[in-house]
């Protein structure tokens, strides 16, 4: 019994001493996304990891970070107005609307923010020096995964603050859960 307890103790000790340096990339499309990403940061920091948070400020009215525990918080803003502010749900939430991944404003937002991020070579170099062990990215756009590639982060993960979107299932060859089919962000056609 005491032998078993000793093993458990040492396994616990090893697990608790494994501290990773994590970069979490979040798309700041709404407050709920920021809160979800912030909760992930809090959980990781509580488990002893060091986490830096990078927020793409798609919605400039969302100023919260979702966490106070990240070591560093970086924000990417555009020099001009974010295209995301022209989305129907922000302009007039009562207007009937269809949002899809191929929505022109959604595409423009993803492209503009990604171009702006990847154009900041000094910032990218600064991140590279950190030698993060793990990159965790919101999958509402794919810039985070591209960034992790540039930074040489080999362990990467993705998350959705919502059910997984169809496009991710298609791209990764994953089956879509049959229990939900009313994907708000995909074409209803
Ligand atoms: C978000 O984080 C930045 C950088 O740490 C900080 O300057 C800012 O005050 C934070 N915002 C809020 C609302 O806490
Ligand atoms: C990239 O940065 C340079 C200056 O650092 C600027 O002149 C150029 O307009 C930027 N390009 C984009 C796409 O933001």
TrEMBL record:
Task: Please verify whether the record's keywords include Isomerase.
Answer: no
Q: Where is the signal peptide?
A: 1-19
Task: Give the UniProt keywords, A-Z.
Answer: Glycosyltransferase, Signal, Transferase
For this protein, the parts annotated as crossing the membrane are none
Single GO molecular function: glucuronosyltransferase activity
Q: Which InterPro entries match?
A: UDP-glycosyltransferase
The answer, when asked if Cell inner membrane is one of the entry's keywords, is: no
EC number, as in UniProt: 2.4.1.17
Protein family according to the UniProt entry:
Belongs to the UDP-glycosyltransferase family.
Q: What is this protein called?
A: glucuronosyltransferase
Q: Which organism is it from?
A: Acrobeloides nanus
């Amino acid at each position: 019994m005491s032998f078993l307890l000793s093993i458990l103790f040492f396994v616990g000790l090893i697990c608790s001493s494994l501290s990773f340096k994590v970069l979490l990339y979040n798309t700041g499309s709404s407050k709920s996304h920021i809160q979800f990403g912030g909760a992930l940061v809090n959980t990781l920091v509580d488990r002893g990891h060091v986490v830096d948070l990078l927020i793409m400020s798609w919605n400039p009215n969302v100023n919260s970070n979702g966490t106070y525990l990240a070591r560093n918080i970086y924000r990417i803003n555009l020099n001009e107005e974010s295209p995301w502010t022209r989305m129907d749900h922000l302009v007039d939430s009562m207007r009937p609307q269809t949002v899809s991944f191929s929505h022109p404003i959604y595409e423009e937002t993803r492209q503009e923010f990604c171009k702006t991020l990847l154009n900041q070579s000094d910032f990218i170099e600064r991140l590279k020096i950190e030698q993060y062990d793990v990159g965790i990215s919101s999958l509402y756009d794919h810039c985070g995964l591209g960034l992790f590639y540039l930074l040489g982060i080999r362990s990467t993960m993705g998350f959705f603050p919502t059910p997984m979107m169809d496009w991710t299932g298609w791209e990764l060859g994953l089956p879509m859960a049959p229990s939900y089919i009313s994907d708000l962000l995909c074409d209803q056609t």
